[in-house]
Design goal:
The structure holds 2 protein chains of 2 kinds.
Chain A lengths: L1 E10 L2 E2 L8 E7 L5 E10 L8 E6 L1 H7 L9 E6 L8
Parallel strand pairs in A: 4-6
Antiparallel strand pairs in A: 1-3, 1-5, 3-4, 5-6
Chain B lengths: L1 E9 L13 E6 L11 E5 L9 E6 L1 H5 L10 E6 L2 E4 L2
The chains are: A mainly beta, B mainly beta.
Chain lengths: 90, 90
Amino acid sequence: MILGRVIGEVHGTIKHPFYEGRRLLMIEKLDHHCEPTGDYLIAADSVGAGADERVLVLDEGNGARQVLDSKDGPVRSVVVGIVDDVMCDT
Amino acid sequence: MLLGRVIGQVVPCIVTPGLEGVPMLIVQPLDKTLNPKGKTLVAADATRMAGIGELVSYEGGREAAMALDPWFVPVDHAIIAIIDGVNVTA
């Protein structure tokens, strides 16, 4: 899993049926100090995360399909948690 | 998933069984501000509706093939949605 920050939403009318009714969030990837790495991804939402929230993103297909209760959905990234705090010594 | 811009089309004359008729589009990956980033790639169009100049989101890896029907095909990038808008709020 990776740390990220919700920086926006993506909307599309024409999409794969699996994504009908699902929120797609723009996630800025963060390092362990919660600094942006400069990279981003688009992930499906499973927890109701909002703009500017720090989140935990699962970036693996089998786990993502399990979370979204699908056998064959074309999904790899899903937001699985909202992060309150990150403590890291180094 | 990531954002990309369709910049061209590939017209193959011979394809692996299962991929007949699937549009193959040249996609320029974009960063979160919609500026080109990285090398272009060829993606199968699972929406079958994307055209040149359109903003799309695509999935890479194993999940790309799962967007297609039949799904057991050798594809590593597939266009999942045509993007109407990106709201970067944070």
